[in-house]
Write a structure and sequence with these properties.
This protein has helices at about 1-25, 50-60, 80-90, 110, 140-145, 170-195, 200-205, 215-220, 230-240, 255-275, 280-285; strands at about 35-40, 65-75, 95-105, 120, 125-130, 210, 225, 245-250. It is an alpha/beta fold and about 290 residues long. Strands 1, 2, 3, 4, 5, 6, 7 and 8 form an 8-stranded mixed beta sheet that branches. The longest helix is centred in the middle third of the chain and has 26 residues, at about 170-195.
């Protein structure tokens, strides 16, 4: 009897999980058949940790046969973009990876898409912007007007390169230009590698200009036009999944506010069990 009751409870719990997954558009957290993993990359790319963690998890999950990288980003930091690029490349070595471009996938957003097995964009997706930029603002004249002086103690001649309170020397500008050129060369090489294009061909497109998805298709920067659902279907087809693929998304992060509530509840329950009166909690328990 107890076993039957436990089985019924487990079945109800299982059905609730499936229903929640259906309502939220996320699949259940149980590996039911072959699936396509979807990894959203949204906003400015300032960190790679969460994205890489998900990529590795999906790569090691045998039930996930292909991955869609859903990109809606104008770019971001060079380092994080390069780290994600490398993990996408490694993933594409073992599973099909389809990059799906949303509103914008430019600069670093395109960088991380380059090593995917296939890239899909909407006709109006803003993409490209293959290039590197570094900007400096100089406040020296403003500080002079209000009578503020700045004094710098430094260990080397170029330690305060790019300082906003003094003019930039020709030598410093040359140093920074060499830096930008090197990072730009890395970007061009990554795109050429990921897209199997000639380096010179990418150089001709890498002056920082942006393209629509349709323009990018004609230039070989993307493989086809389509939305997220199209990308999921393509990924499923590449993985040999018949019919509409099941999808799995990264587990959403629990809001810190709820973590606080849970922690506070546990603390109050512990104090109450120890016989302490905590803000009328015992009374509330009695009337409830």
């Amino acid at each position: 009897m107890a076993l039957a009751t436990f089985g019924a409870i487990f079945l109800v719990f299982f059905l609730i999980i499936l229903a929640i997954g259906s309502m939220t558009g996320r699949s259940a957290p149980f590996p039911i058949g072959d699936r396509v993993g979807v990894i959203p990359v949204t906003g400015v790319i300032l960190s790679s940790d969460k994205t890489i963690e998900t990529i590795v998890k999906f790569r090691e999950d045998p039930s996930i046969k292909a991955v869609v990288l859903r990109i809606d980003s104008p770019g971001g930091g060079v380092g994080p973009s390069q780290e994600i690029f490398e993990e996408v490349r490694r993933l594409a070595d073992v599973k099909p990876v389809v990059a799906s471009m949303g509103s914008v996938a430019a600069s670093g957003g395109y960088y991380i898409a380059a090593p995917a097995s296939r890239i899909l964009a909407n006709p109006g997706t803003i993409t490209g912007s293959i290039g590197v930029i570094m900007e400096f603002t100089n406040f020296q004249e403003l500080l002079d007007k209000i009578g503020l002086k700045n004094r710098v103690i430094k260990s080397g001649e170029h330690k305060d390169i790019g300082s906003p309170v003094r003019p930039m020397s020709a030598e410093e500008e040359h140093i920074l230009q060499e830096l930008i050129n090197d990072v730009h060369d890395q970007f061009v090489s990554a795109v050429a590698q990921g897209r199997s294009m000639d380096y010179a061909e990418v150089v001709g497109l890498a002056d920082g200009r942006i393209f629509s998805g349709r323009q990018a298709l004609s230039l070989g920067l993307v493989d086809d036009l389509g939305n997220l659902r199209d990308a999921i279907l393509v990924a499923g087809e590449m993985a040999g999944i018949k019919g509409e693929p099941r999808t799995v998304y990264p587990a959403p992060e629990r809001p810190r506010f709820f973590e606080y509530l849970i922690q506070e509840s546990v603390t109050r329950v512990r104090q109450s069990l120890q016989g302490q009166n905590v803000d009328g909690l015992q009374y509330l328990w009695q009337v409830n």
